[in-house]
TrEMBL record:
Protein's name according to its UniProt entry: Radical SAM protein
Domain Radical SAM core residue range list: 13-162
Spans annotated as Disordered: 371-390
Organism name: Thiorhodococcus minor
GO molecular function: iron-sulfur cluster binding; metal ion binding; oxidoreductase activity
Signal peptide stretch: none
Stored CDD domains: Radical_SAM (cd01335)
Pfam families in alphabetical order: Radical_SAM (PF04055)
Obligatory cofactor(s): [4Fe-4S] cluster
Family that this chain belongs to: Belongs to the radical SAM superfamily. Anaerobic sulfatase-maturating enzyme family.
UniProt keyword list: Iron, Iron-sulfur, Metal-binding, S-adenosyl-L-methionine
Length: 390
């Protein structure tokens, strides 16, 4: 594992208050104790020292991360800050939450630990997100009230939205109007769905027509470029693709990374280590090991046959499926978990390949046109990771 930035997805609890039908996590009642957190943090920082990685970000999530109390995060923040200071490094923290347990008691720790910002999830229309025994409409209303409450406390609320068949039916115009104009969300990321974890009826219905999905992406990108980009509205991945195609610094989502195994790992509340949140709870055969049972994280990662399957994937794809692609240097074969949940193999290219190609071409054309017209003022940051869902 090389490079100067490292992301740790840390599942503070494997428990969740919601019961989203498409959830890829195999939830349990486990949560991290402060003592176990200390052991994990020491091993992660040792690993970073060994590989000269200087800038870690911990993405806190679950299950539902807010099921642990604010006081727990206060202790966790102090513990991590102390351990990092001894090594002369700084750890950044991000919080991915469904926001439903949020109340004013969270405000102080969100300000101190998370820079007064949270990332949450909203699909529109919402088909799958709900509380146990309740409707998606009930979820949406509760979520909206929590967002209002958080914003009134000065918290910046970012959104991840997973597209579904109803989103494609209403189209890009209504989707943009709802999120940006009606809900006032000005920083969001759209994700493609995948049937991760145990199969069920909802997950069987997640597959979308790729041509329709590509059309939706391109139309939404155009609406954003016309109405939002100049007004500080950020939509990932469009904003970062514009940056990429205009040779600016771009923070592309992990699905297009050179190899996600080089950039992040996930650790769940039992200490299991895997590639990201979906793998760590739902695919036991693909776990890299258990950090609490291992002396060193570096050895665990180095010796893991499961991790080797991830590190070898891009080379395999480049030699076979992606070698002639114009966007190989941007996409690298796409996301392993989207591939695996469709093909039960890592050694295929991402099932959204055709969407990516059409979107890349469209944004490249638009970025070239706008740069030529001197009309470019895209934002330069986004939420960074794709793996983060709650
Ligand atoms: S979402 Fe896909 S690309 Fe991102 S870390 Fe997980 S497997 Fe890798
Ligand atoms: S767009 Fe398709 S062919 Fe090109 S690198 Fe990505 S997965 Fe491979
Ligand atoms: S998708 Fe997130 S919020 Fe919904 S049940 Fe799964 S872990 Fe909980």
């Amino acid at each position: 594992m090389n490079g100067n930035h490292f992301s740790l997805i840390l599942l503070a609890t494997n428990q969740c208050n919601a019961a989203c039908e498409y959830c890829f996590e195999d939830k349990t009642r486990d949560h991290l104790s402060i003592e176990r957190l200390g052991l994990i943090v020491d091993k992660v920082l040792d690993h970073m020292d060994a590989h000269r990685i200087g800038a870690p970000t911990i993405h806190w999530q679950g299950g539902e991360a807010m099921l642990l109390p604010p006081q727990w995060y206060l202790e966790a923040f102090a513990l991590i800050g102390e351990a990092a200071a001894k090594r002369g490094i700084q750890v950044d923290h991000g919080l991915q939450t469904n926001l439903l347990p949020y109340g004013p008691e969270w405000d102080a720790i969100i300000a101190e630990m998370f820079d007064n910002s949270v990332s949450t999830s909203l699909d529109y229309p919402n088909l799958y997100r709900k509380l146990p025994g309740r409707s998606p409409e009930h979820y949406d209303a509760l979520w909206a009230s929590k967002v209002r409450m958080a914003r009134s406390a000065g918290i910046d609320v970012k959104v991840i939205s997973v597209l579904n068949r109803a989103t494609l039916e209403i189209g890009a115009e209504r989707f943009y109007e709802h999120l940006v104009d009606a809900l006032g969300v000005t920083d969001f990321q759209i994700n493609t769905p995948f049937p991760g974890g145990e199969a069920n009826t909802a997950k069987q219905a997640l597959e979308l027509d790729v041509a329709a999905l590509a059309r939706f992406h391109c139309e939404l990108a155009d609406i954003w470029l016309e109405r939002g980009a100049g007004r500080d509205v950020r939509i990932g991945p469009f904003d970062q693709l514009v940056n990429y195609f205009t040779h600016r610094d771009a923070t592309l989502p992990c699905i297009w990374g050179q190899n996600c195994a080089d950039a992040l790992i996930a650790v769940d509340a039992r200490g299991h280590v895997a590639q990201c949140d979906c793998w760590v709870t739902s695919y036991p055969d693909y776990r890299f090991g258990n950090i609490l049972e291992s002396n060193r994280l570096s050895e665990l990662l180095r010796d893991s046959p499961a991790r080797r399957r991830f590190t070898e994937r891009p080379v395999h794809l480049v030699q076979r499926d992606c070698i002639d692609c114009d966007y190989l240097a941007l996409c690298h074969g796409g996301c392993p978990v989207r591939t695996y949940s469709r093909h039960q193999s890592l050694l295929e290219k991402d099932p959204y390949c055709e969407l990516y190609k059409r979107l890349f071409r469209h944004i490249e054309d638009q970025a070239t046109r706008l740069a030529g017209a001197g009309a470019m003022s895209p934002p330069t940051t986004n939420q960074g990771e794709d793996a983060l869902g709650s």
